[in-house]
Structures are given as C-alpha cells and as structure tokens.
Automatic annotation (TrEMBL):
<dbReference type="GO" id="GO:0004013">
    <property type="term" value="F:adenosylhomocysteinase activity"/>
</dbReference>
<dbReference type="InterPro" id="IPR015878">
    <property type="entry name" value="Ado_hCys_hydrolase_NAD-bd"/>
</dbReference>
<dbReference type="InterPro" id="IPR042172">
    <property type="entry name" value="Adenosylhomocyst_ase-like_sf"/>
</dbReference>
<keyword id="KW-0963">Cytoplasm</keyword>
<feature type="region of interest" description="Disordered">
    <location>
        <begin position="33"/>
        <end position="88"/>
    </location>
</feature>
<dbReference type="Pfam" id="PF05221">
    <property type="entry name" value="AdoHcyase"/>
</dbReference>
<dbReference type="GO" id="GO:0033353">
    <property type="term" value="P:S-adenosylmethionine cycle"/>
</dbReference>
<protein>
    <recommendedName>
        <fullName>adenosylhomocysteinase</fullName>
        <ecNumber>3.13.2.1</ecNumber>
    </recommendedName>
</protein>
<feature type="binding site">
    <location>
        <position position="335"/>
    </location>
    <ligand>
        <name>NAD(+)</name>
    </ligand>
</feature>
<dbReference type="InterPro" id="IPR020082">
    <property type="entry name" value="S-Ado-L-homoCys_hydrolase_CS"/>
</dbReference>
<keyword id="KW-0520">NAD</keyword>
<comment type="similarity">
    <text>Belongs to the adenosylhomocysteinase family.</text>
</comment>
<dbReference type="Pfam" id="PF00670">
    <property type="entry name" value="AdoHcyase_NAD"/>
</dbReference>
<dbReference type="InterPro" id="IPR036291">
    <property type="entry name" value="NAD(P)-bd_dom_sf"/>
</dbReference>
<feature type="compositionally biased region" description="Polar residues">
    <location>
        <begin position="66"/>
        <end position="75"/>
    </location>
</feature>
<feature type="binding site">
    <location>
        <position position="438"/>
    </location>
    <ligand>
        <name>NAD(+)</name>
    </ligand>
</feature>
<keyword id="KW-0378">Hydrolase</keyword>
Length: 524
C-alpha cells in the first residue's frame, strides 16, 4: 500500500479513504432509486415526473390525482430522456408509424426475439407449415397484449402468414422497450413502452384503431378486453367491419360475455382463455414457476416458514399455492366456489375467509380476476411488513386507489416495489402497484407463450377464413381438435412418442381413430 493512501477508522477496521469516498458517492447516486413519496401535490418528488406527472403540450401524461389509476413508478434510469410521444422516430427504412422508447435499441431486442424463438418450437413449426398458404393474407389485425420477446415472435408469425398488424401493450409495466424497438425496426406499427401513464395507455390503443393510412382493422387480438372496449364504445363504425375477436384473458372473456348478453358484441369471438392447452400451460405451470421467482426478485425474501394467503383457487391460484407450499410456506386459501374450496382442502391447504386470516399472514397473493378482493379495510388490518401482490390478470383485485390519500406515504424501494406507510407508521410492501406481478418483474417462459400463441393464431386463422354464416355474434370455445393439434406441435421438443389407436380400439371407445380423443366438456 502506498504511503499517500490515507485510512479512516470504521468501527475497529481501518478502511482506505478512497473506498469510503467511493461508497459515499454510490449512496448518493442511488437516491433516484430510493425516495419517499407523500401522496400530496406539494410533496411529490419531481424526479418521478416521467411516469405520473403531466408531460405538457404533447399530452405525455396527466396530472396526478388521488382518484386516478396512473402509475406512481418510474422504470427508466434515464429520467431526462424525452417522452416517446414528444419525439418522432424513424427506423432505418424511413418508417415512422410507431411510438417506442428508443428505436436505436432494436439490435438488443432482435437478440431477445431470436433467443425466444429457440424455446418456442410449436409456434415456429406452425409458421413453417402455414407459410406457403398465407392463411392470413388480407387480414388487418389490431392487437393489445404484453409486448415482450415471446409475444413478438407471435406478432411476427402473424405478419409472416400474411397479416397487416398494429399493436399496443395491455400492461403499462410489462413492455420490453428493446423488443418494441425491434418490432418497429422491422416495419410493424407498435405503440408501447415501459412505464406508460394511464393516459398513454389509452392513447396507444387509439393509435392502433386509427391512422392516416385509412386503416380499418377486420380482426381483433385482445388480452384484457381494452381494445375491444375502445372499439365498441368509441369507433362503432369500424367495429361493424370486424370479422372476429380473439380474447385470451379471463377478464376479457367476462367482458365479451357481457357484451354478448346485451347484444352489443360486434362480431364472433373466440375464447382462447378456456382452451385446455392455454389454461394448463399459461395459468397453472407458468404461474407455478413465476410466483416464487417474482417474489424473490422483488423482495429478496426467504419464503420457508412464511404464512401466505392465496386469494382464489382456480388454475392460477392452484399453481401459486402449490409452488409456495413446496417452498415451505404455510398456505391459506380464500375461495367463493365450493368445488375449488374442496380441491384446496384435499390438497392439504387451509380454506379461510380473508378477514379471518389477514392479520397474521406475511404475504398476500391475489389470483381471482375479480375486483375489490383486497380492500383498504383488509390492508389496515395487515401486519407490519406484509407483502401484497397480484397474480391475476386485472389491476382491480387490490384497492390501490384507497392508498392514494394525503395521509398515506409511498416510499419507493426499487422498480416495482413500494413501501406504503400508514399514519400509524405501519408499512406494507406493495409489488407492481397491484398489477400483474410476474410480467412486471420477469418474462413469461417462452414455451408457455408458444402454446398460447399457437392456439390464438389458429383461432385468428379460423375467424379470418370462416364463411359468414358459420358463426353468430357470440362467444365460442375452440374445438378440442385444435387443442390437440397445438399440443402435438410441442411434443417433439420433449422427444415424446404418441401411442396410436387401432380401428378396433377406436370403435370400442366410440371416438375417431385420430381424435379428438375427449369430448368438449372433458376436464383434464
């Protein structure tokens, strides 16, 4: 050690002065990531303006209000960068009909997409098989889904099969900015960036339904029903030209059935959420892996020994509960359905009403797809340090608006993690502001999206090519044969060999020799 290197005493240790200085600088630099946010106009930190304050003349956001549902988080380290709606970007070919964070990051996004393709064998196989036929030629598809590498493979498959598409994000937190840039670079009209405000969100959807190119979509791909809602309520003339709708979420399916009951559904709709393969892979196996990963990434928590309440015991709730139980958690389940409740009991879980256990749990996971599952009254009763998150589709399960009050302080810990400090100084840790946790924090497994996307593309192909008289303006389930076909596309990756029925066996069972092998009502 050189003689000019001075030391400072820290406890009983002598630490080089340069190291102490460097550490101090490091703490100073992290102030952008750690700040307290009193929910009052005067006390709001201006460093969060990129996500929750007005972006002036360009309409980049709206002013915060206590009853709004806008984002209180900031995701990008470059807070001084211009808002995407304030600038016009052009790709390498002169194309500008898009709005993304930074078009120059497209090379990184392309690598992400290529990586996802390796783990999406079924979807790539479907693309290869249907490429020559161009079954979506003439289709104008407007989509609203998570914009990540896996869904980018699906979007580019639609284009490869002949479709013209415009796309927006269904979640303000889940977009991979570099992937959106890669789609824009390839000439796709994409309107999405991570950390949008609510006003940005609706603006992006509107851009997909309008345009100077006299754009009139004839097919809808939706995840949550927001695109369909805007189309029906604000663009009824365009809605009359739509041939079909494909919806993949439980929330969106509920909204479709409501439209159907009121005779307001503009076109036939395919419910792919309840497709067997989609429910099994996306709702159960995917959530089973991602809930643990998401909780640990956000909080660095040790799960063993923790007491957890899982609200809802459908496929998502089952996956979450089983994963948390396997990690050594004591798991309670709340449920309205007696059949699901019985399943939970038989799986060794304790079924309780929320209000009976809310005081003693360490973690609350909502997975119902409903609204008002966790109320302000529930949160007032939670123990100090309780972690609250949502694994259901919608952001309505936890009453977030009740926390945007002058006497409640939001303390940002890191991206997607906020401490909510109550007047009595108790705090709960809220993840992803009550939005879908796993897609706000991590990316969904590519194989899962391959299964879901193949199902959805086949539904779009069916609606695009079906004779006008085949479907009424109602909600339909996919035929079992399509589910079996999607599954068969993915079996080669597992080196799986299917057995086959001979004619006598098929006759004995009373089913076709090559399927479908189960009736439509069969539950796997």
């Amino acid at each position: 050690m050189s003689s000019d290197e001075e030391h400072e005493t820290v406890g009983h240790l002598k630490v080089p002065a340069k190291l102490v200085a460097a550490t101090a600088v490091g703490f100073k630099d992290r102030t952008k990531r750690r700040l307290s946010l009193p929910i009052s106009g005067a006390g709001r930190d201006h460093s969060r303006r990129s996500s929750n304050a007005s972006n002036s003349e360009a309409g980049g956001g709206r002013k915060g209000s206590f009853d709004s549902t806008e984002s209180w988080s900031s995701f990008d380290s470059d807070e001084d960068a211009p808002h995407p709606r304030q600038i016009t970007q052009v790709n390498s070919k002169g194309f500008s009909s898009f709005c993304v964070k930074n078009i120059s990051s497209h090379n990184f996004g392309r690598r992400e997409i290529k990586l996802a393709e390796f783990e999406m064998p079924g979807l790539m196989s479907l693309r290869e098989r249907a490429l020559a036929d161009q079954p979506l030629k003439g289709a104008k598809i407007v989509g609203c889904s998570h914009v990540n590498a896996q869904n980018a493979v699906m979007i580019e498959t639609l284009v490869a099969l002949g479709a013209h598409v415009k796309w927006s994000a269904c979640n303000i937190f889940s977009t991979q900015n570099e992937v959106a840039a890669a789609l824009a670079e390839s000439g796709i009209s994409i309107y999405a960036w991570r950390g949008q405000t609510e006003e940005d969100f609706w603006w992006c959807i509107q851009q997909c339904l309008t345009g100077e190119d006299n754009w009139h979509p004839n097919l809808i791909f939706d995840d949550g029903g927001d695109m369909t809602h805007v189309l029906v309520t604000r663009f009824p003339a365009i809605a009359k030209q739509v041939k079909g709708i494909v919806e993949q979420s439980v929330t969106g399916v509920h909204r479709l059935y409501q439209l159907s009951q009121k005779h307001n559904l503009p076109a036939p709709a395919m419910n792919t959420h309840d497709a067997v393969t989609k429910t099994m892979m996306d709702n159960y196996y995917s959530q089973k892996e991602s809930v643990v990963d998401s909780l640990k990434r956000c909080t660095d928590i040790m799960l063993a020994g923790k007491t957890v309440l899982v609200c809802g015991y459908g496929q998502v709730g089952k996956g979450c509960a089983m994963a948390l139980k396997s990690m050594g958690c004591v798991v309670f389940v709340s449920e309205i359905d007696p059949i699901c409740s019985l399943q939970a009991c038989m799986d060794g879980l304790k079924v309780r009403r929320v209000e009976y256990v809310i005081k003693k749990v360490d973690i609350v996971v909502t997975a119902t797809g409903n609204k008002g599952v966790i109320t302000r009254e529930h949160m007032d009763k939670m123990k100090d340090g309780c972690i609250v998150c949502n694994m259901g589709h919608s952001n309505t399960e936890i009453d977030i608006n009740s926390l945007k009050k002058p006497n409640i302080t939001w303390e940002k810990i890191r991206s997607n993690v906020d401490n909510i400090i109550f007047p009595n100084k108790k705090r709960i840790t809220l993840l992803a502001e009550g939005r879908l946790l796993n897609l706000s924090v991590v990316s969904i497994p590519s194989l899962v999206v391959s299964v879901s996307a193949a199902t959805q593309i086949l539904a779009l192909i069916e609606l695009a090519n079906a004779p006008a008289a085949r479907y009424n303006k109602d909600v339909y389930l996919l035929p079992k044969k399509i589910d079996e076909y999607v599954s068969s596309l993915h079996l080669p990756q597992f080196d799986a060999g299917l057995s086959e029925l001979d004619q006598e066996q098929a006759k004995y069972l009373g089913i076709p020799q090559h399927g479908p092998f189960k009736p439509q009502y069969y539950r796997y």
